[in-house]
Amino acid sequence: MSEKTIKFKVTRQDDPNSAPYVEEFEVPYRQNMNVISALMEFRRNPVTSSGKETTPIAWDMNCLEEVCGACSMVINGKPRQSCTALVDQLEQPIRLEPMKTFPVVRDLMVDRSRMFDSLKKVKAWIPIDGTYDLGPGPRMAETKRQWAYELSKCMTCGVCLEACPNVNSKSDFIGPAPLSQVRLFNAHPTGEMNKEERLETIMGEGGLANCGNSQNCVQSCPKGIPLTTSIAALNRSTTLQSFKNFFGA
């Protein structure tokens, strides 16, 4: 009886300017194997299903427990984390592709600078330099802390941007993840010092107006973050900010 194997079709690309191509691989089946485990086998022994020697596959990974967000890729047509994608739950041959929203660096590795630049644009941090001698900051109400914690689970994996039809090369839409971070930091008692600045940013080009409300982001988020709830809340906040701007309040 022959050994059971798992078949993969991997979309590869030698560099950012070369054309993509597909190579097929096989790996002996192991119970509870995830996609990362298979990729490690291909890297250890880079030989295709037909016996042709090839180069090791390049991809990003770090924590291997769905915390860092680095190993995002498109698996059987769906963007997700490869560390939690179990081969037992996937239809074969398992198709691995790089996310298309971001430029390909090599093979399954992409450049997610677009997302990180958007986080910089909306100032997704709390500026507290020089305030250490002022004593403890204000406490956050428990009810607010509970839903804010859900927003803080974002691991900048880029899956929601890949799933969003409005985030593409022809649009400068910053995407769901940076928008949700605006709500998170505006809810913080210290972070709301920059609340108006963040709201003004998302009221501009590439902000809330570019959201088509497709709901793809909240369905694809591996952490179950209520992204569309955040976007709805920000719509209310920016409307109030518009009235304040108009009346000079």
From TrEMBL:
- Gene3D superfamilies listed in its UniProt record: 3.10.20.30, Alpha-helical ferredoxin
Domain named 4Fe-4S ferredoxin-type: residues: 145-173
Q: Which Pfam families does the record match to this protein?
A: Fer2_3 (PF13085), Fer4_8 (PF13183)
List, in alphabetical order, the GO biological process terms annotated in this UniProt record.
respiratory electron transport chain; tricarboxylic acid cycle
Recite the UniProt keywords alphabetically.
2Fe-2S, 3Fe-4S, 4Fe-4S, Iron, Iron-sulfur, Metal-binding, Oxidoreductase, Tricarboxylic acid cycle
For activity, the cofactor(s) needed are:
[3Fe-4S] cluster; [2Fe-2S] cluster; [4Fe-4S] cluster
Could you give a GO molecular-function term held by this entry? Answer: metal ion binding
Query: Per its UniProt record, what InterPro entries does this chain match?
Result: 2Fe-2S_ferredoxin-like_sf (IPR036010), 4Fe4S_Fe-S-bd (IPR017896), 4Fe4S_Fe_S_CS (IPR017900), Beta-grasp_dom_sf (IPR012675), Helical_ferredxn (IPR009051), SDH/FRD_Iron-Sulfur (IPR050573), Succ_DH/fum_Rdtase_Fe-S (IPR004489), Succ_DH/fum_Rdtase_N (IPR025192)
EC number(s) of the enzyme? 1.3.5.1
Recorded hits in NCBIfam families, A to Z, give: dhsB, PRK08640.1
Protein family membership: Belongs to the succinate dehydrogenase/fumarate reductase iron-sulfur protein family.
The record's listing under PANTHER family reads: SUCCINATE DEHYDROGENASE [UBIQUINONE] IRON-SULFUR SUBUNIT, MITOCHONDRIAL, SUCCINATE DEHYDROGENASE IRON-SULFUR PROTEIN
Name the UniProt record assigns to this protein: succinate dehydrogenase
Q: Which gene encodes it?
A: sdhB
